[in-house]
Design brief:
alpha/beta, Rossmann fold, 2 domains, 6-stranded parallel sheet, binds magnesium ion
Length: 260
């Protein structure tokens, strides 16, 4: 075994595709998390999904059986709000949903049609005219940001587009670079390490995406575990360098429970 789960003190879980498929928990997740808590392990969550605020996401996880507080979740919307606040940016154009708008609003950042900064996220109402609007703002020199670079979002057995298809269309239209504020950005890393007291070498990040979660965890110096319930499959591991690989592939969460 590449990770001695018993010595891990802090467990950080990606949410979508890892902990849940939006309306239900993945198999043995409730058992794993209750066992971790019984053993006095610290449990946190990271997500690029900004459809909900952190408070709403905590409520959702709690309803699904995982008692969670807002402060246990680091979302890329929260990171983005913090980043804009730190740069003195108080208005942005948002291609995103109410969760992101609320998260920004909590830091005093308002949504404007006439902004020098544009943030892209999952937006189920994204359309042709929004793309044109973003193009107009970019043409006038607006800077572009994104809350994540996930291709998929899972709701039950259905696969929905996440941020990447929207981002690709904006890139194709504007030709501009887009700054990432979600996983695996240095901004998300800085916020996580600021908010959570941990020792990187005693921390395991578990996620379903090699290109976002595992890359992020590895960049933070954590141990990383890939689950196969979401974006990445075992075939995606071929040809990865040592830094890109997860420390361990977790095929069955019961293996962690057994070895705690
Ligand atoms: Mg995921």
């Amino acid at each position: 075994m590449l990770v001695n789960f018993g010595t891990i003190r802090t467990f950080i879980f990606d949410i979508n595709g890892t902990v849940m498929q939006w309306n239900s928990l993945n198999p043995y997740m409730d058992k794993l998390i209750s066992t971790l808590k019984k053993r006095n392990k610290k449990v946190y969550y990271v997500t690029d999904n900004c459809v909900l605020t952190r408070a709403q996401m905590a409520e959702k996880l709690t309803k699904l059986g995982l008692k969670t507080q807002e402060k246990d979740i680091i979302s890329s919307g929260y990171v983005a709000a913090d980043y804009f606040e730190s740069k003195g940016i108080d208005k942005v154009y948002v291609a995103g949903e109410r969760g992101l708008v609320s998260e920004l609003g909590e830091k005093g950042i308002r949504v404007s049609e006439d902004a020098d900064h544009v943030i892209l996220s999952i937006d189920r109402n994204f359309n042709y005219m929004k793309l044109k609007k973003i193009g107009d703002l970019a043409e006038k020199g607006a800077k572009l940001y994104m809350t994540g670079m996930n291709r998929n979002w899972y709701i039950d057995d259905e696969v929905y587009p996440a941020e990447m298809p929207i981002i690709d269309s904006v890139k194709k239209f504007t030709g501009k670079d887009i700054m990432l504020l979600g996983m695996p950005s240095s901004e998300m890393k800085a916020k996580l390490l600021e908010d959570i007291f941990l020792f990187p070498e005693d921390t395991l990040l578990i996620g379903d995406s090699i290109s976002t979660n595992i890359k992020f965890g590895n960049s933070c110096g954590f141990r990383t575990g890939l689950v196969l319930t979401g974006e990445s499959s075992e075939n995606d591991l071929a040809g990865l360098s040592a830094e890109e690989k997860p420390t361990v592939v977790i095929r069955d969460l019961r293996n962690i429970i057994k070895n705690l």
